[in-house]
Amino acid sequence: MNAPAPERGERWVGVFVVGALLLLVAGFAYYLYHTAERRGWLVPRCPYYTFVQSAEGLEVGEPVKMMGFEIGAITSIEAEPPGAYYNVFVGIEIKRPYYGYIWADSKIKVANVGLLGRQLEISKGVTGLPTVKDFNDRPSEVLVNGKMVSLAEAPKGVFLLPEESPSVTERAEKLLGQVEGALPNIVALTNQLNDVFANANGLLTNSSAVMLTLDRTVAQLDPVISNATVITGNLTGPTAALEGQIAMLVLGLNETLLNLAAITSNLNVQVQSNDQMLSEISTLVTNSDDLVQGLKRHWLLRGAFKSKTTTTNAPAPRVK
User: Fold this and answer.
1) pTM
2) How confident is the model over 102-129, as pLDDT tens digits?
3) Which of 45, 116, 125, 215 can pair with 106 through a Cys bridge, CB separation 3.0 to 4.6 Å?
4) CA–CA gap between residue 132 and residue 96 (Å, rounded)
5) What is the Cα–Cα distance from 158 to 294, expressed in whole angstroms?
């Protein structure tokens, strides 16, 4: 007899569910395989190890580099026994084919990265023996004490000689020491800068005073120039008015010389009180004094500078 129709339908539903589960598992396995291949989970790796004095700045999972490439990662960081020469054990794994670049003369450098971080970097081998021997594209033997042994006999892998840079704490202490040593020089330099600024301020103040004095001097020279113009006009006038103008000339020249003497006296005081006065002002004072002395010696104006003396009338002639 044929099975009933409902039982046959349930069988097909079960087949469909099982097929869907199989497809889901296959898809998940395909995703895992490609993810592992993309991230290098299936790439053969070889263990290495080194020792450092401080684990500061190092963390498990951080990359290990060679020639700028990420060739592996840190797998373990453990403290050594108290009596050991090195303080910290660091285990790493290097991916294929990069462990083929590591030879007996390769070293692992603990380099400073940024302000607080450190990073492991392995130098490429040049001489000596390779550290790993492959079998079926997988590491089978490693170099230990100058000879190849099975990887099972050396589970920690190959030892690499470390080149460790100072830790962050040591660098900070050294930097603080340098700053403390430089503080006295910095304070002295600050004091010198303050003195320079004070001298510059005083120089600017003196310059302002000099400019004000020059302005006043120029203002006082105006009547001198005006009087000199009048004198020159009088000297070039007609010969008939010369005798009448001599008196006015002497009076105007006397007033001019008095103003000029006051100017030279003020400038002389400014020059003696301010050593920052420009050399041109000293030259102006000297030339002005030479001008006054030359005018005193001139034949036309010589009589205006003679000292006044008291004169008396001559006695009357005696009558015989």
Assistant:
1) 0.48
2) 999 999 999 888 766 789 999 999 988 8
3) 125
4) 10
5) 105
